[in-house]
Amino acid sequence: MSLGVETIRNIAETYTLAWNSGDPERVAGCYARDGDIVINRGTPWQGRARIAEMAAGFYADVNNMRVILDDLRIAGDHVAFIWTFTGQHAGTGHSLDVQGWEEWDLGPDGSIAASRGWYDAEDYARQVAGP
């Protein structure tokens, strides 16, 4: 049974607010207890504690991070969460404006069971290095 478009939009808005809170535990709370995220085909971060570690790493690298929900694509309980994040790199101070997306499989309770995230790592590195 599908969660419905409005429910999924609420899940996406809650996820965006969680990222913008600066609280890694709040981000992790959007996931199923054994949920996972893989970024750019990297090593999976599985379980809420590991997902909180992943979020904390982003917060450590990006000052004043803001996530913007650009768009959603919904097919049943499979969702493309299309985003932009902005901020300043903590090490260089250079401005960041990074676009990407996550492909979610949602559980019946609306938690994120699995996420596959994508962004252009070369563009990110270019922005970190600056002009």
Write a structural description.
The N and C termini lie far apart (50 Å). The chain is built from 4 helices and 6 strands, in the order ααββαββββα. The protein has a single domain (5-129), classed as Roll (Nuclear Transport Factor 2, Chain: A), CATH 3.10.450. With 131 residues, the chain is of the alpha+beta class.
Looking at this protein, list some descriptive labels.
131 residues; alpha+beta; Nuclear Transport Factor 2, Chain: A; globular; SgcJ/EcaC family oxidoreductase; NTF2-like_dom_sf; SnoaL-like; Steroid_delta5-4_isomerase
Distance between the termini: 50 Å
The pLDDT mean sits at: 96
Structural class, please?
Answer: alpha+beta
Text of the CATH class: Alpha Beta
Instruction: Indicate the low-confidence ranges by residue numbers.
Output: none
> What's the overall geometry?
globular
The CATH topology comes to Nuclear Transport Factor 2, Chain: A
Q: Total number of helical segments?
A: 4
Order of helices and strands: HHEEHEEEEH
Helix content: 25-40%
Question: Would you identify the CATH architecture?
Answer: Roll
How many domain units?
A: 1
Strand order in space, largest sheet: 2-1-6-5-4-3
Quick description:
The chain is α+β, with helices and mostly antiparallel strands. It has helices at 5-21, 24-28, 48-61, 121-129, and strands spanning 31-39, 45-46, 62-75, 78-89, 95-106, 112-119.
